[in-house]
Each structure stands twice: as C-alpha cells, then as structure tokens.
Amino acid sequence: MYAFEFHRATSVEEAAALLAKTQGKLLAGGQSLVGAMKLRLSSPSSVIDLGGIAELRGIRKEKNAIVIGATTRHAEVAASPEVRKAIPALATLAEGIGDRQVRNMGTLGGSLANNDPAADYPAGVLGLGATVRTNKRAIAADDFFRGMYETALGDDEIITAVSFPIPRRAAYLKFRNPASRFALVGVFVADTGTGVRVAVTGAAPCVFRVTDMEAAFTKSFTPDAIKSVRVDPGKLNSDIHASAEYRAHLIGVLAARAVAQAAK
Questions:
Q1: Looking at the predicted structure, is the pLDDT value of residue 42 above 90?
Q2: pTM value?
Q3: Residue 8's beta-bridge partner residues?
C-alpha cells in the first residue's frame, strides 16, 4: 500500500465537502476500493470513510417502497424482515452476494457506485425500477447506469439511499462463477403491476434491460412466453468463463426460471 490521507466523515455534508476539497475516494465497505488500491488500479491521494454516518444506514418502508441506506450491509438486507416480507427477491439477491465476509462488509451504495459489470445489485435496482437518492438529487435506475464502471454520479455526489418500489412479484436467479461468486449471468424479473421489467447483469459491460422479454412477460407471465425471444450475443461478453452465445442462452433460461419462481 502507499501513503494517502484518511478522513472519517461524521455527516453527509462533511463527506461532500471533503470530497470536493480533496477529490479523493469514498470508502463504504471497502470490498472494491481496497482491493483496487492494493493492485494499484486506484491511487487516491485521500480516502473518505462513510462508515460513521448513521443517516446512511438502515432499512425502512415508505408508502409502497422499501428504502435502504447506502451503507447498509448486504447481510443486513438479506436478513431484514421488512425486505423479506415486501421484496423477498431482493433479500435472495443480497444473500447470494460473494462470501460471508463480503456480505458482512460490502454495502449497497458501494456496489452501485462501483457498478461492476457482474455485480448483483445493479440487476435488482434496474429490475425493480428503483430510485437512487444522492445528496443532490434523485436518479431513476434507467438513467443511473451508463457503462462499465460508469454511472450518472457527479464527482462530488454521494449516494445516500435507494428506494425500491414493492412489486406484485419478483425473482432473481444467477449462474455464478464458482470461485468469485460473481454472476456469469444474473436475471432479475419483476412484475410491477403495470408491466414486467427484466434486468440482466454479468452478460455485458453494464447491466441492461431485455425489452422483448418484458413485452412477452407482460402479455403472459409464464416461462413459455419467451420461447421465441432470442438475445443477440453481439454486444455480450465473451471470455474464458463463457462465450457470448452461451451467455445469451443463459439469459433466456434464467429469465424463464425466474418467472416460474416468482409465479409460485
């Protein structure tokens, strides 16, 4: 490791001021940032720890939505009675992230801000049509994810919470890498009551929606509804773990199984 300044913010306002002043990096759970720093993939001159800001943590129900603070741990989401009752698919998603250490340290906000192509939370946020709240504004899920490790966040913007609308039914399934537990392909399907959303992670440089599947499932929320829907592998990842064609096939398989599970 190399020398850097460490700041422990006590409020969102203080963290934002430090971020603007130092142009450093925010530390939430550290599961992405610390690893990147060890590998010299990130070399910030300062690190701003958000762990001491109480207002960034917690889970509550607001009208027809579950609001989760940015520094809430994955394990807390997985075990939350509120989440398990209102959006069990989101609890399942959180329960399947990484290993026990990652779940007990990693945070919702950190995962979204990093926007790893194979992360699970982006699929849940996009699939549920959630709203990402920051210290400056509210950003719709469809506008938040921009590309590989890229989001709509400004340089001095901090995620404070995410508001997840409660769906009629939903499910998340992933085909995971057995070593890293990242998603080779992960599919989140949500029946919102006004339509169906299908979000895919792990298959491309950034999480994305499959609109043809959404239209088919909106007409008939059954696994057979997408039998004729094909995903173009042209824009999908191809690597030592899986080809683009295999990932395209997995999207269809997992989407159909997710609908079957959600419909139970």
A1: no
A2: 0.95
A3: 49
